[in-house]
Amino acid sequence: MRRLIAIVDQENGVAKGGGIPWSFPEDLAFFRQKTRGATVFMGRKTFLGLPVRPLPDKHNVVLSRTHSTLPGAEVFTSLEKALEQYSDGWIMGGAQLYAYALEQELVDMVYLTRMRQAYGADVCLKDAHWKAFSWYKLRETEGADFLLGLRSVPPNTRESL
Ligand SMILES: NC(=O)c1ccc[n+]([C@@H]2O[C@H](COP(=O)([O-])OP(=O)(O)OC[C@H]3O[C@@H](n4cnc5c(N)ncnc54)[C@H](OP(=O)(O)O)[C@@H]3O)[C@@H](O)[C@H]2O)c1
Fold first, then answer.
1. Cα–Cα distance, 66 to 146 (Å, whole number)
2. Mind listing the pLDDT tens digit for each residue in 41-99?
C-alpha cells in the first residue's frame, strides 16, 4: 500500500518560506504515531530543513537528483524505485514530492489533516490533487479534520473519465 501523509491549511497550503507556518501538536502526534518505526520518503529540501536530522525511530529515505549521499538517510533518485523497494513506506513531503506522487498516481492511501484556517502559505497543492480519492472523516477537532482518502479512481484512467 503506497501511503502519503500531509497536513494542509484551508487553501491547500503546505509550506511558507521553507517552513510550516503553523504549530499543531495534535497533528504532530498523529504523524509520529502513524509513522513510528516505518520508512518515510521525503524530498531533499524537507530533509535538510528538519530541526532534528534524521527523523528518529524511522528509516529516512530522501529523494534527490543532486545529492547521492546524505548523512542519516538512504538516497534515491526516483520515487518509483524507492517505492518498489519499500512498498509500505510513507510519502511525507514536501510540496514538490507530494505533487509528483499525486500527479503520477503513485499513492493508494492518504492521511490528510485539513485545517480550518488559512496561514498565507506560499506553496499550495490543488483540489485536483485529491480528486482520485474517496474521503472518510476519521476525527474532527476544533482546528482540523483528520481525513482518510482511499484511491477510488484506478491509476491511469483520468484521460478516459
Ligand atoms: N504540510 C506538510 O505536511 C509538509 C510536510 C513536509 C514538508 N513540508 C514543507 O514543505 C517545504 C519543502 O517542500 P519543497 O517542495 O520546497 O521541497 P521538497 O519536496 O521537500 O524537496 C524538493 C527536492 O526533492 C527532490 N525531489 C522532489 N521530487 C523528486 C522526485 N520525484 N525524484 C527525485 N527527486 C525529487 C529534489 O531534490 P534535488 O534538488 O536535490 O534533486 C527537489 O529539489 C518545507 O517548507 C517543509 O516545511 C510540509
1. 35
2. 999 999 999 999 999 999 999 999 999 999 999 999 999 999 999 999 999 999 999 99
* Residue-level pLDDT at 154: 78
What architecture does CATH give domain 3-160? Answer: 3-Layer(aba) Sandwich (3.40)
Which H or E run includes 141? none
In contact, 143 and 24? CB cutoff 8 Å? yes
Distance 42 CA to ligand 1 centre (A): 6
Count of C-beta atoms within a 10 Å radius of residue 31:
20
pLDDT at residue 160 greater than cutoff 60: no
Torsion of CA 40, 12, 107, 70, to 10 degrees: -30
Q: What is the pLDDT of residue 161?
A: 42
% of the chain exceeding 70 in pLDDT: 96
Integer Cα distance of 45 and 56 in angstroms: 18
Site residues for ligand 1, CB cut-off 6 Å: 6-7, 14-15, 18-20, 42-46, 49, 63-67, 77-79, 92-97, 100, 123
The identity of residue 13, as a single letter, is G
Here the cell at position 128 is: 485536483
Residue type, 91: I
